[in-house]
Design a protein that fits this description.
- The complex is a heterodimer of chains A (about 575) and B (about 180).
- Chain A is α/β, with parallel strands linked by helices and about 575 residues long.
- Chain A has 24 helices and 20 strands.
- In chain A, the strands form four sheets. In chain A, strands 3-2-4-5-7-6 form a six-stranded parallel sheet, with helices on both faces. In chain A, strands 11-10-9-12-13-14 form a six-stranded parallel sheet, with helices on both faces. A six-stranded parallel sheet of chain A has the order 16-15-17-18-20-19, with helices on both faces.
- In chain B, the strands form two sheets. In chain B, strands 2-3-1-4 form a four-stranded antiparallel sheet, covered by helices on one side.
- The chains are: A alpha/beta (about 575), B alpha+beta (about 180).
- The interface of A and B includes residues 306 and 314 of A.
């Protein structure tokens, strides 16, 4: 029994069949038929953003915080090109989103029509897959396939380009169960490789778990299994920026985040270990530092669902291709079957305890201005007992948030890791708040990043989303400034924020609440006021302007060559390191 | 990952100077990629090579199963073993790619290429070109009083050799198809 309907109706029907409850979008000429269908139904909520980039980041925030795919709907031409940054962001961080774009009618494609762009051409390298649908009969099947592709294997963004005549024409609707696909990536690990990993776990004396966003993407079960495996082995565990929350920050085996601005003990453990178990991470350059000096003494195992992640950057001894949850379940099963036991690793823990004594995140709150670290420490203290979700923009504030906020559960931390997209956090926080209406959603931001997508304040106000924009305002592009201090002779080229708006008045102009704080003594009350306010808040926290973010592995250096707070930063980066970003 | 050769003995501290533990020998591999015959699939494959800085020595593509909508792309590429392995994995990741075979690794295979060569000349040179064509079992598929067009099938090396011989004999134009390859047996 096939149902006949217009392409536009098919879009809405297919989204409903896929369980979509929220779509982020912005209308335009080439998607009017779909918007007309959205108008005539109530099951799917459409959130009108203020810029298409915001729609895609909001869909990302929705997806990261729920584990479900996010959906964005934009028009042709500029609507599609504005979505490109969000698509690339989602591709780098493996976030499942479905972006629907309008296109000029099929008979006008290639004629340089008004608002025409080669959307599938432009987005081919920044999507996991994309489709231009030229027949209405193919439309519903393509949408169902798109959800399958976005959420299976390594998740990622997909895009469906739908010409306007395809939206108007009538065709047969295919339900999801009638759609065939050949796309079925392997999810179960090779049993021999799993046994090889168990062998390594049994004999290691200086082991470390190095986990990443793949654990989060694999679903909450993966985090539970990871916790079980850590408890079973008592191995120390560190995580990338993307993997925070998979293992609780309060857990006794937690070393903190690793990498360029990771904790001293985490990076030292990575450097000195004899067994590194990479679970759902990809040896990114923010993690490895200098690759030829990366963890020289260790055997390395790597669990990843994407074959291209294995041996891409770092050669591994035991590659395990599969889904994190499926593989971890198998590892635990073999561990118990074999009655395995770990070697004595107490000497290793003693060493780690010594590194922890360095207390690399220590800072002193003194003087009249608020230290950004102090602001985050207080934010943590006053919000950690709430049902809390944190987003960030990109820069120093992002690294401080990762260092000073604790994440106890997965899907609670939304940040642009791979692409490093300034302007990500504000729209993402809107997506998160929509998915979790009663939760406390905070976007930790820098004033410069936040201004990149500040227009979304209108979205928060329109939908009465009580999102808290927590701006650490140093009137600088802090991370750029830090690098200029380190390797460009303190010539601060274009890295200050001139002519900033009065954020309190700006909030009020949007119809939101603005709070400004500059005195450390007022900080707690101000944060409390922000939490208590039932509505969007723009929190302008004036902080120390020239604070640097430490620890730091200077580019081109190894894990054990970290700079700690108050380090001599001059000449730390050599000419070869300076070319790296 | 670019084609630039790194000087022997050169040291670099760049984080992008990947896989120091890996072999630096540049190898030539032939990959057979079976893809769904859908719009843009070739652009996906080529975009992967250009976007990630891999080399393409030759690339051929044609539909092999009309009803099943499948095409086969044969790519000859060069790189270190790790780069080749990355290319294979990256190709396999493309949603419209059904199969990737590294024919160079997976056992013996046959490779053939077709070339058309236009050779212009008169007198002795013309006779010599004809004699050489005979030896190489090239066919004259077009002839005028001043020119031949030879068709030659063989390995790329054989075609290279024939081209070298034809050059002094008045070679004026070359068209090559690139390699098509199949595993033996």
């Amino acid at each position: 029994m096939t149902r006949q309907m217009t392409g536009a109706k098919m879009v809405v029907q297919a989204l409903k069949d896929q369980g979509v409850d929220t779509v982020f979008g912005y209308p335009g000429g080439a998607v009017l038929p779909i918007y007309d269908e959205i108008f005539q139904q109530n099951e799917i909520q459409h959130i009108l953003v203020r810029h298409e980039q915001g729609a895609v980041h909001a869909a990302e925030g929705y997806a990261r915080s729920t584990g479900k795919p996010g959906v964005a709907l934009v028009t042709s031409g500029p609507g599609a090109t504005n979505a490109v940054t969000g698509l690339t962001d989602a591709l780098m961080d493996s976030i499942p989103i479905i972006v629907l774009t309008g296109q000029v009618p099929t008979f006008m494609i290639g004629s340089d029509a008004f608002q025409e762009a080669d959307t599938v051409g432009i987005t081919r390298p920044c999507t996991k897959h994309n489709w231009l649908v030229k027949e209405t009969d193919r439309l519903s099947a393509t949408i169902h396939e798109a959800f399958h592709v976005a959420t299976h294997g390594r998740p990622g963004p997909v895009l469906i380009d739908i010409p306007k005549d395809v939206q108007f024409a009538t065709g047969a609707y295919s339900p999801a169960h009638a759609v065939e696909t050949h796309y079925a990536p392997r999810t179960d690990g090779d049993p021999e490789a799993i046994d090889a990993l168990v062998d390594l776990i049994e004999t290691a004396t200086r082991p470390v778990f190095y986990t990443g966003g793949g654990v989060i993407n694999s679903g909450p079960e993966a985090s539970q299994l990871l916790r079980e495996l850590v408890a079973e082995t008592d191995f120390p565990i560190t995580s990338t920026l993307m993997g925070l929350g998979a293992y609780p920050a309060s857990g006794k085996n937690w070393l903190g985040m690793l990498g360029m601005h990771g904790l001293y003990e985490a990076n030292m453990a990575m450097h000195d270990c004899d067994l590194m178990i990479n679970i759902g991470a990809r040896f990114d350059d923010r993690i490895t530092g200098r690759t030829d000096a990366f963890s020289p003494k260790s055997k390395k195992a790597h669990i990843d669902i994407d074959p291209s992640s294995i041996n891409k950057v770092i050669h591994v001894d035991v590659p395990i291709l599969g889904d994190v949850a499926t593989v971890l379940k198998a590892v635990l099963a073999r561990w118990k079957e074999r009655g395995s036991k770990t070697a004595d690793i107490s000497a290793w823990w003693d060493e780690i305890k010594e590194w922890r004594k360095i207390n690399c995140l220590a800072f002193t709150q003194e003087g009249p201005s608020i230290k950004p670290q102090y602001a985050l420490e207080r934010l943590e203290a006053l919000t950690k007992d709430h049902d809390r979700y944190i987003c960030t923009e990109v820069g120093q504030h992002q690294m401080w948030a990762a260092q000073y906020l604790g994440f106890e559960e997965p899907n609670r931390w939304m940040t642009s890791g791979g692409l490093g997209t300034m302007g990500y956090g504000h729209p993402a926080s809107i997506g998160v708040q929509l998915a979790h209406p009663d939760a406390l959603v905070i976007n930790v931001a820098g004033e410069a990043s936040w201004l990149m997508n500040m227009q979304e304040m209108g979205t928060s106000v329109q939908y009465r989303l009580p999102v808290k924009q927590f701006i650490l305002n140093n009137e600088r592009l802090g991370m750029v400034r830090q690098w200029q201090e380190l390797l460009h002779g303190e010539r601060y080229s274009q890295s200050w924020s001139e002519a900033l708006p009065d954020f309190v008045k700006l909030a009020e102009a949007f119809g939101a609440k603005g709070i400004m704080v500059s005195d450390p003594a007022d900080l707690d009350d101000a944060i409390q006021e922000m939490i208590n306010h039932d509505g969007p808040v723009l929190f302008d926290c004036l902080v120390e302007k020239h604070e640097n973010c430490f620890p730091m592995i200077p580019s081109g250096k190894a894990h054990n060559e970290m700079l700690l707070a108050n380090a001599q930063t001059q000449g730390q980066i050599t000419a070869t390191g300076a070319v790296l970003v | 990952m670019s084609a630039l050769k790194i000087k022997k003995g050169a040291t670099s501290h760049s984080a992008y100077n990947l896989r120091p533990a890996f072999s630096e020998t540049i190898e030539r591999h032939t990959l057979a990629v079976v893809v769904g015959n859908e719009p843009g699939v070739l652009a996906r494959v080529i975009g992967l090579f250009s976007g990630r800085g891999y080399n393409i020595e030759s690339l051929t593509v044609a539909e092999i199963d009309h009803e099943g909508h499948r095409s086969r792309i044969t790519i000859v590429t060069t790189g270190t073993p790790q780069v080749i392995e990355q290319i294979r994995a990256q190709l396999g990741r493309i949603v419209s790619v059904h199969e990737v075979h590294d024919l160079t690794v997976e056992g013996p295979s046959v490779e053939r290429e077709l070339a058309l060569l236009k050779v212009k000349g008169t007198g002795d040179k013309r006779l010599e070109a004809m004699r050489m064509a005979d030896i190489f079992r090239a066919k004259a598929v077009d002839s005028t009083l001043e020119s031949f067009v030879f068709e030659l099938t063989g390995t790329p090396e054989k075609i290279d050799a024939f081209i070298d011989l034809m050059r002094p004999l008045g070679l004026s134009d070359i068209a090559r198809t690139g390699v098509a390859a199949l595993s033996r047996g």
